[in-house]
C-alpha cells in the first residue's frame, strides 16, 4: 500500500488536508473520497480503518479534513477552536467540490480515476449528497447522514443572533466548541443550495443509505426522508439493527463491532459493484 499526504492552501491561508492510500501495482481505476461530519476529522475512529479496507479492495482512498474543522498540527485533537467557529456549510461544500475536481485532474493520484465514489458520515453525509447532486459521482454511500442542516431551535437561533456565537459541547473531549453567527447566516443565505432533501432528488449515482436504527444523534427518520426524497433515482435504504451514530465504533478505534462490520460490508459491496464492476 502506498500512503501519502496532500494539502491545499485556501485563500484565507487555512489548509485542506487529506491522506491518500493507493494500492500497489497499476494505478487504480476508482477512488473513494471519505467525508467526516460535525466535530469529526479524517483520523477519527473508523476512518483510517475504512480507508485501508477500501484501498485493500482496489480503490484509491482519500480521507479529507475540511480546512476549518478545528484540527491543526495534532491530527486527533481539536486545537484550532477559533477556526472551527468560523466554518460554514457553504465552505465545506466548496471544499468538497474542489477535492472532487482535483481527483479528476492529474496530480492528486498517479492517474485520474475512471470512477469516483463518495462516502460521507453524518453532516458529511449531507454534504456528500449535495456534492453528488451538484457535480455527479459514480457511486454514493451515506452513513447516518442528516436530511437537513437546520437542526437548531428558534430559541437557539435567537441567542445566536444576540450573542454572535454559541457553544456546543464535545462529549468525548469535554471541550466547548464555538459556532460563530456566520454559520447560521451562511445557511440562511444559501438555503436552496444547502437543501439536502432537494439535492437527494437530483442524485443520479447509485446510492446506499446506511443508518443505525438506534442512532440518537441523527434519528433514522432522516434516512427515511432521504430515501423518500430520492424517489425513483434508486437509492437503497438499509437500517442497521442496533446501530448507533457510529455503528458502535469509538475513538480511538477498538476494532469492528457487529454493527460496524455490517455497514462496512455493505459499503464495500456497493463500491465494488458500481466502481469496479464486480461483487453483488
Low-pLDDT regions:
none
User: How far is the first residue's CA from the last residue's CA?
Assistant: 25 Å
Number of strands: 10
Strand content of the residues, in percent?
Answer: 15-25%
CATH architecture: 3-Layer(aba) Sandwich
What is the total number of structural domains? 1
The biggest beta sheet is recorded as: 8 strands, mixed
CATH superfamily membership, which one?
Alpha/Beta hydrolase fold, catalytic domain
The overall pLDDT average reads: 96
Specify the overall morphology. Answer: globular
Relative helix content: 25-40%
Q: Which series of helices and strands comes N to C?
A: EEEHEHHEHEHEEHHEHEH
Q: Fill in the CATH topology.
A: Rossmann fold
Number of helices: 9
- What Rg is obtained from the alpha carbons, in whole angstroms? 18 Å
Amino acid at each position: 500500500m502506498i500512503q501519502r499526504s496532500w494539502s491545499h492552501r485556501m485563500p484565507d491561508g487555512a489548509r485542506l488536508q487529506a491522506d491518500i492510500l493507493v494500492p500497489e501495482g497499476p494505478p487504480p481505476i476508482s477512488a473513494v473520497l471519505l467525508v467526516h461530519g460535525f466535530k469529526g476529522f479524517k483520523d477519527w475512529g473508523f476512518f483510517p480503518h475504512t480507508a485501508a479496507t477500501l484501498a485493500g479492495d482496489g480503490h484509491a482512498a482519500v480521507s479529507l479534513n475540511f480546512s476549518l474543522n478545528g484540527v491543526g498540527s495534532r491530527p486527533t485533537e481539536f486545537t484550532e477552536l477559533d477556526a472551527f467557529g468560523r466554518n460554514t456549510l457553504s465552505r465545506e461544500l466548496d471544499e468538497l467540490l474542489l477535492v472532487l475536481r482535483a481527483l479528476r485532474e492529474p496530480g492528486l493520484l498517479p492517474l485520474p480515476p475512471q470512477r469516483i465514489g463518495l462516502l460521507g458520515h453524518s453532516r458529511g453525509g449531507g454534504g456528500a449528497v449535495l456534492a453528488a447532486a451538484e457535480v455527479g459521482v459514480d457511486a454514493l454511500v451515506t452513513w447516518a447522514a442528516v436530511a437537513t442542516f437546520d437542526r437548531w431551535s428558534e430559541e437557539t437561533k435567537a441567542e445566536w443572533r444576540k450573542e454572535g456565537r454559541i457553544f456546543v459541547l464535545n462529549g468525548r473531549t469535554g471541550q466547548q466548541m464555538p459556532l460563530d453567527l456566520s454559520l447560521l447566516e451562511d445557511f440562511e443565505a444559501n438555503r436552496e443550495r444547502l437543501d439536502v432533501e432537494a439535492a437527494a432528488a437530483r442524485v443520479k449515482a447509485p446510492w446506499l443509505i446506511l443508518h443505525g436504527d438506534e442512532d440518537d444523534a441523527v434519528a433514522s427518520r432522516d434516512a427515511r426522508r432521504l430515501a423518500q426524497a430520492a424517489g425513483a433515482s434508486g437509492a437503497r435504504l438499509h437500517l442497521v439493527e442496533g446501530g448507533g451514530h457510529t455503528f458502535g465504533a469509538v475513538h480511538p478505534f477498538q476494532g469492528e463491532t457487529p454493527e460496524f462490520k455490517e455497514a462496512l460490508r455493505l459499503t464495500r459491496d456497493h463500491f465494488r459493484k458500481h466502481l469496479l464492476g464486480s461483487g453483488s
